[in-house]
Amino acid sequence: MSKSETKVLHALERVGGFASAQELHMVLKRNQEAIGLTTVYRALQSLVADKSVDLLRREDGEAIYRLCGDAHHHHLVCKNCGKTVEIEGGVIEKWAQKSGEEHGFRDIGHTAEIFGICSDC
Amino acid sequence: MSKSETKVLHALERVGGFASAQELHMVLKRNQEAIGLTTVYRALQSLVADKSVDLLRREDGEAIYRLCGDAHHHHLVCKNCGKTVEIEGGVIEKWAQKSGEEHGFRDIGHTAEIFGICSDC
DNA sequence: AGCAGAAATGGAAATGGTTGTCATTTTCAA
DNA sequence: TTGAAAATGACAACCATTTCCATTTCTGCT
Question: What is the C-alpha separation between B117 and B82, in angstroms, rounded?
Fold first, then answer.
């Protein structure tokens, strides 16, 4: 594991959830852990390829990253105020795995998000 | 409904599934239905706001659109060759609805996609 | 029909996240 | 130490999407 990958992992731990490449870059800058933006992107690519980090998408398409090994869960997001609740998703894991296998797929992953309007909005 | 929105809806029917804004623009060009790219984007924004069209994301973050009212289903996509299989997702509908309600959300929707490597790859 | 104001249109330029390029620096084995 | 290979980062290129703005089309009114 290269030095930059270590730094990026460390930054991901610090933010403790999701972060975009640009956000991680800013976090690293603020902590005298200076590292180029290009290198952050490269490190994230390797980490995703190694399955050390998960890649998701925000609603606007921006890529966001999360440490694997975090309990795998999904999100319930308010379309109005952005409030986010973590949801248990065992049902989904099984559904994805089963559906994939039935069609002869391997190396199966999935994304699932729920959105709506929260009680405060 | 403006003229351009009609054209875009028509193009979406013709492609019969998912299409990006750029793809829809090309489809329209090819069929003497010339219309500016900007207008395609604007029409899609309105249609999404009206809930006439659904907005999803490809894995690379590009926005893709689909007619609402199509039987609601999900997709199993090969990460390697792009082959797509439509999947029945009743389980997911229930899971999304239930999870949302439990947290006091209303107007609940969801996205879910499965991806993997297909048997031909 | 003729007119004014509003809405729609589309080409060009701007934006912003992401990736490619390439010269320089660091690492590491011989 | 030394030379090849990998890593790094500033900068430019890319591409989907949005913004800008001048022009055209629509609409209601007389």
Answer: 9
Domain end call among A51, A67, A83: A67
Q: How far is Cα A55 from Cα A75, in angstroms, rounded to an integer?
A: 14
Q: What domain range includes position A85?
A: 74-116
Q: What is the pLDDT of residues B45-97, one digit of tens each?
A: 999 999 899 898 888 899 999 987 666 788 888 877 667 888 887 889 999 99
How far is residue B44's CA from residue A36's CA, in Å, rounded to a whole number?
37
Strand C positions with any atom < 7 Å from protein CB? 7-12, 17-21, 27
Cα–Cα distance for residue pair B77/A111, rounded to 1 Å: 12
Q: What is the CATH number of the domain that holds B78?
A: 3.30.1490.190
Position B107 scores a pLDDT of: 87
Q: Which helix (H) or strand (E) holds A55?
A: strand A53-57
Distance B22 CA to C14 C1' (A): 19
Asked, for residue A121, whether it belongs to a domain, the answer is no
Mean per-residue pLDDT of chain A:
88
CB environment B45-82: b (16+ within 10 A), e (fewer): eebeeeebbbeebeeeeebbbbbeeeeeebbbbbbeee
- A62 with A27, same domain: the answer is yes
B10: CB within 7 A of chain C nucleic strand: no
Closest-CA residue of B relative to A59 is B57
pTM of this structure:
0.81
Average pLDDT over residues A93-118: 90
